[in-house]
Each structure stands twice: as C-alpha cells, then as structure tokens.
Amino acid sequence: MAHSYAYLDKEKILHLLEDEAVKHGKYLGTNLDYDESGFPIIGGEGVVYYVDNDTAYVNANEHGGKQIAVPGGLKALASQLL
User: How many Å apart are CA 65 and CA 6, to the nearest integer?
Assistant: First the structure.
C-alpha cells in the first residue's frame, strides 16, 4: 500500500505529500518517505529534484543546497508523471 503520493508542481519539481497530490493533477502512490517540506528523503536527507533540468539538491533548493547526482528512483518516478 502506498504511503505517500508523488506529483510534479507547476515548476516540475517533485513532491511527495498525501493530501496535496490530488490538487496537482497527475499523481502516483509511492513508498518513499518525505521531509517536512514534502521532498523525498534519500539517504536520510530531503532531495529537491528539478525534473526539467535533471538536477537534484540536498539540504535546500538550487539556490542554497548541495547538488548531487539524481537518484535513479526519482528519475523513474518523475518519468511516470510527465
């Protein structure tokens, strides 16, 4: 059973929340955990994934976070939402 729902916001940033997903159109159930901001947790840290740019950041967004390689699971999830 899914424990959260993934969706892309209007900027095509991946979010995981239970109650917000249905407000954003297409969404998918997932077993990924999410942080207090609704970003997926990978390796114990919240990851902000910009789908259009295919970039990911931990500990903040593109303006203050540390860029990391995009986790394959997030790419796969986002591709199903496009």
Answer: 21
Cβ count within 10 A of residue 39: 24
- E-state strands within the chain: 4-8, 14-17, 28-30, 41-42, 45-50, 55-58, 66-68
Contact between residue 78 and residue 70 where contact means Cβ atoms under 8 Å apart: no
Q: What 3-state class would DSSP assign to 4?
A: strand
Q: Are 29 and 2 in contact (CB under 8 A)?
A: yes
Per-residue pLDDT tens for 6-41? 999 999 999 998 777 777 789 999 999 999 999 999
